[in-house]
């Protein structure tokens, strides 16, 4: 039997500042522009979590969507929603919070949490309505 | 010459009930929650059909989009739109109508219907604005 | 100080059948087409609730959005989500569940529930991504 | 000749904290929840600016959309995009940055700036994909 | 009994050129920029037609949505879809095809066509995903 | 370190006519329908450009999004926005402007322009809100 991918979309709102702590404010402003603003800015992030597996014969489900939602909420959303990503998210400590780095750390938070037979397949993270990142591990 | 994918989006509205007929109502309600409601519930499904091929030298088309739309309408949409998926769709008989199982049966309805040189590449089926399934055969 | 409108969007999935019980199945099918299917069909409804008032001097809020969400969930969403509107919603009994009638009954469920100084201003109910109804009481 | 409304949508990303400086942190947290987080959070705001007037006989325009965009960018967007609304926006000083208060101050920034015959009709400000405010002065 | 508004969304794709035939090409280019390009440009227009009335006691409908769709298709869509608005639409002859003028002419095509008890309430015409016009007669 | 994909969405509005110059008007109309209209029609194209690479250790970026936007604007958007694709785009000369052929030529405009370590991964081009093409080279 073939494998199917299922995707659940979740939202969170957070503040961040994209800067390199080894650089001066001038250098950060030159490289990152407004994204390096020391007073922070923020986004309504839109996260799509895709997992893959063979549907269970008894339920027709790769994974129960309520379980998928709960897992992502407990491992990711509750840590970042209405938070400052630079200051308050332990698993982002020491990481420049670009969308690229952020999605890779979210992957690490999730990849080992799925039941047998279900694999994390892709994360898509929209930072604004105009740009997103995709990560497949 | 390289191959290109083209995707057409179609919509339909249907009722269904996700339950396992081998189980009691209690067990179904425990596993599937509101999705097992014996009085049915329903969705506005959004189906994206992706086919792949090399554009024809004389038309620039992988496949005429009107033909693609007609094919999906005649093989899928007219069977399911404003229908009860459990009771009225012959090719879903005996299948638990989870989104996963549903997209695999839609694949079976379409995969052998394309002209030479055109292959069904992917189906994406959104059951609500918050979750979808993807199937590549 | 001027009044401001705030809107919260909520979703629910339900089954229904649009038919007039005083008519024969033939007549219903003639008038309502697939919407009268005796085996039901369903939708992912999208409800936008708009209330109006003067922002409170101490909070800057017309009404706390969490309270607005809770109110609509307890008075409307929990009654209709994953339900059959014809069979299971007491406040729709004896009402033909057209989108027009449905939005007026949702209005009746909500209009007297707001705190002093806050008025229900408009309900917008999308039944499919292609059509909606608006009601202002 | 009748009047027509034209609307231009613009986006910006900002950080903020919704709190009342006359209250303790405990009281703020109790009333505003995560929105009062002293470490800030943020949003991708979506602003729709609607103006009204009679189309000019020579251009068919109520107002040139490029002019409308420039006006909103110079009076609003450049002040708030990638900024901290509490700390860096002079015209929000002393104002609790709820969406309600924010939209009223944006109105004040724009209302007297339009050419003769064009009137600001409505502002719609989406703070998240799930809620918005509307203001008509 | 109160009145309810119902809205149907329809799409069409067309070419146009916004220019004043009394002006030189230079003057047109100065005023209208790329919109005056003599070689045309085009849009995927999104038209929302809103009508108002009291729901019929026997159907629960203000107006059958299939009838509303047919009416707009026969009076508007079939004239403009995959057409050049300046050259091929008789009821736009002599009219500068700004979105403002266009929506007023669409209004004239529709306003007298509704059955008794149903009134055209509003037209909303999106020319791009970033701007729209609204007209209420 | 793993590679990440980043996507930027851009828009443009253009006119075109899909026809084969080796055929008669009758044959073109038979094959292409309204798309072959000699008076042109047009679309609001939505282009998603996806590039892939390993995030830079010092910035956390695969590529600066402002640079990605500038590159696509200078190589593609400024050539096609508010233009006639058949008549005014030098790199579409002699090419039937189907969405399939169009996306392949946009690929050719972009593929060799990226800095070392960054690769063009996919282009997705929506011609209407209902259909798109995808190309991966």
Q: What's the total helix number of chain A?
A: 4
Give me the Rg of chain A, rounded: 17 Å
Task: Output the helix-strand order of chain A.
Answer: EHEHEHHEE
CATH superfamily of chain A: 6-pyruvoyl tetrahydropterin synthase/QueD
> Strand pairing plus helix content of chain A: what structural class?
alpha+beta
Provide the CATH topology of chain A. Tetrahydropterin Synthase, Chain A
Beta-strand residue percentage of chain A? 25-35%
Walkthrough of the structure:
The structure is a homohexamer of 137-residue chains. The two termini of chain A are 24 Å apart. Chain A is of the alpha+beta class. Chain A contains four helices and five strands. Chain A is elongated and about 60 Å long. The first copy, chain A, has helices spanning 25-32, 65-80, 85-88, 99-110, and strands at 4-16, 41-53, 83-84, 119-128, 131-135. Helix content of chain A is 29%, strand content 31%. A five-stranded mixed sheet of chain A has the order 3-1-2-4-5. Chain A has a single domain (4-135), classed as Tetrahydropterin Synthase, Chain A. Chains in contact: A-B, A-D, A-F, B-C, B-F, C-D, C-E, D-E, E-F. Chains A and D meet through β1, β2 and β3 of A and β1, β2 and β3 of D.
Secondary structure layout:
6 copies of one chain form a homohexamer.
Chain A: E1 4-16, H1 25-32, E2 41-53, H2 65-80, E3 83-84, H3 85-88, H4 99-110, E4 119-128, E5 131-135
Parallel strand pairs in A: 1-3
Antiparallel strand pairs in A: 1-2, 2-4, 4-5
